[in-house]
Specification:
This protein has a single domain (5-78, 117-284, 322-435), classed as Outer membrane efflux proteins (OEP), CATH 1.20.1600.10. By secondary structure, the chain is of the alpha+beta class. It has helices at residues 5-13, 41-51, 53-73, 118-184, 190-225, 248-258, 260-280, 324-391, 396-431, 439-447, 452-459, 463-466; strands spanning 37-39, 79-88, 101-114, 233-235, 286-299, 304-316. The protein has twelve helices and six strands.
Length: 504
């Protein structure tokens, strides 16, 4: 449904203001068109991917998990240590000694032989953590896609409502001029003029409030995609209706298989299982091997040097540790139970989210048809009320009531369109429609024993997505232009009015 282009063009060139007891001027500051940014939904989402700080936090979290796996792998590597010490002796006690200085150097190579499975389970747990971090990044990007889409649709919705209330103001202004003309010739009472003025003043207040909501929506969108909050943007899309042939059962099954957070919950269970096995290593011995070599220089003058070396192993076994290992195993077992409950809860939540979005989608779809019909009826009802009032068989209240109902019908229509589009975006999110990587393919690759980089490459939807995310320097905080004392609205409106309510 479109608002009259001629009326909108005329109204956007000027700003109307009205009267309670006389005439007052009402205006918004004009925004420089050169500062406006034309932006589409796809561009909005891309900007969010590039600038949103939540995504950067997830990238840094993944980087930390990568180095955590690197640390776990190096626990089984040989460890080389070098020790050096030097001493000088003096005083009466050492007067008869043949040497007064001593230098010692020694090097040792040691490595663990058997740790009861603790190191092996540590590596597995760290690998699961890295896989979970990869999926967490994908989950974050899906959420950012949804949020940026909703913010963008908020701007479109308020833009539509601004147009609705603009037309209401214009129609009431036209009606006020007609009432004034009839009052001057004595065909209507003064009360009709006053009622029309009050109704127009209320409509102007509603327009101001909607315009403010539009500007707040623009500021929220700018902040989310990394632009200064006072940036003037011009969305290039419109809210439309497109029929989707979806089945709730298929949507739910797809979500349970493809949701990244469901896979993350499964990895949490695997990590808890590894932690339990690692805790049991306390019941087994620890065996380490070592090789060391060193020498001691006892007197720098006589060059007296003593060399020594050793090869061996050491083993330790806590025969009785006071129940510490048992306590650690029980603690890990409780954590495993908690992780399994989280998996069940996550899957139940997924089913609920998919069903809610699915029902919202179809409810909004039904409302689109009913509200569209209501708009047609409302327009006809308003025309009839005007004709009846002009003929003297209707009242001024009938005209204003018809105007309010028409405005409400138009608002309901655009609201139904908004809810339909946001419900579809939410359904995509809750189904786990991928952004960069296919969750199922990633899990299959990980289970084959491939590295995280290889798994990401196997599951990547594009060549760019196959690249391992890198941590970058923290971007500077986006600041508002504080030199501008009164931030400009994103859509400039300016109009003057003559004493009788006509446009200049």
């Amino acid at each position: 449904m479109k608002i009259c282009k001629r009326i909108r063009k005329n109204f956007r060139r000027r700003l109307a203001a009205l009267i309670a007891a006389g005439v007052m001027t009402f205006s918004f500051g004009a925004a420089d068109a050169a500062d406006a940014i034309n932006i589409t939904l796809d561009e909005t989402i891309q900007r969010a991917y590039e600038n949103n700080r939540t995504i950067k936090e997830s990238v840094a979290e993944r980087e930390g998990a990568f180095w955590g796996l690197s640390e776990a792998r190096r626990q089984t590597n040989p460890k080389v240590t070098w020790d050096m010490s030097g001493q000088k002796f003096g005083g009466d006690q050492y007067r008869d000694y043949y040497y007064h200085r001593a230098f010692t150097n020694s090097g040792t190579i040691s490595m663990p032989i058997y740790q009861g499975g603790r190191l092996r389970e540590g590596r597995k747990s760290a690998r699961y953590a890295l896989s979970s971090a990869d999926l967490s990044l994908e989950n974050t990007m899906q959420e950012v896609r949804l949020q940026s889409t909703v913010y963008y649709f908020d701007v479109l919705q308020y833009r539509n409502l601004v147009a609705v209330y603009e037309e209401e103001v214009l129609t009431l202004q036209e009606h006020l001029r007609n009432v004034n003309a009839q009052f001057r010739v004595g065909t209507v009472a003064k009360v009709d003029v006053l009622e029309s003025q009050v109704e127009l003043a209320n409509a102007m207040q509603n327009l101001v409030n909607i315009q403010n909501s539009y500007d707040v929506a623009v500021a929220n969108l700018n902040n989310f995609i990394g632009l200064p909050a006072d940036t003037v943007i011009r969305p290039q899309d419109t809210l439309t209706y497109k029929k989707y042939y979806l089945n709730l059962g298929d949507c739910t099954a797809y979500a349970l298989e493809n949701r990244a957070d469901a896979a993350m919950a499964d990895y949490a269970v695997k990590r808890a299982e590894s932690a339990k096995k690692s805790a049991k290593s306390g019941w087994y011995p620890n065996v380490n091997a070592s090789i060391s070599k060193g020498h001691t220089n006892e007197n720098l003058v006589s060059k007296k040097v003593t060399d020594q070396w050793s090869i061996g192993f050491s083993a330790s076994w806590d025969i009785f540790d006071g129940g510490i290992t048992r306590a650690q195993v029980n603690q890990a077992d409780a954590e495993l139970t908690r992780a399994q409950e989280v998996v069940a809860q996550t899957r139940e939540q997924i089913q609920l989210e998919v069903q809610s979005a699915f029902l919202d989608l179809h409810a909004a779809e039904r409302n689109i048809g009913t509200t569209q019909a209501a708009v047609v009826l409302g327009e006809e009802n308003y025309k009839i009320a005007q004709v009846r009032y002009a003929a003297g068989v209707g009242t001024n209240l009938d005209v204003m009531d018809a105007s309010r109902k028409l405005t409400e019908a138009r608002s309901n229509y655009f609201t139904a369109l908004y809810k339909y589009n946001t419900a579809k975006a939410s359904l995509d999110r809750y189904m786990g429609v991928p952004v960069e990587i296919d969750v199922v393919r990633y899990i299959e690759s990980e289970q084959e024993g491939k590295t995280a980089a290889q798994s990401r490459e196997d599951a990547a939807l594009t060549s760019d997505a196959a690249a391992v995310p890198e941590v970058k320097e923290v971007a500077p905080v986006v600041m508002i232009d504080f030199e501008n004392d009164t931030p400009l609205p994103s859509e400039s409106l300016e109009q003057d009015m003559t004493k009788d309510g006509a446009f200049k």
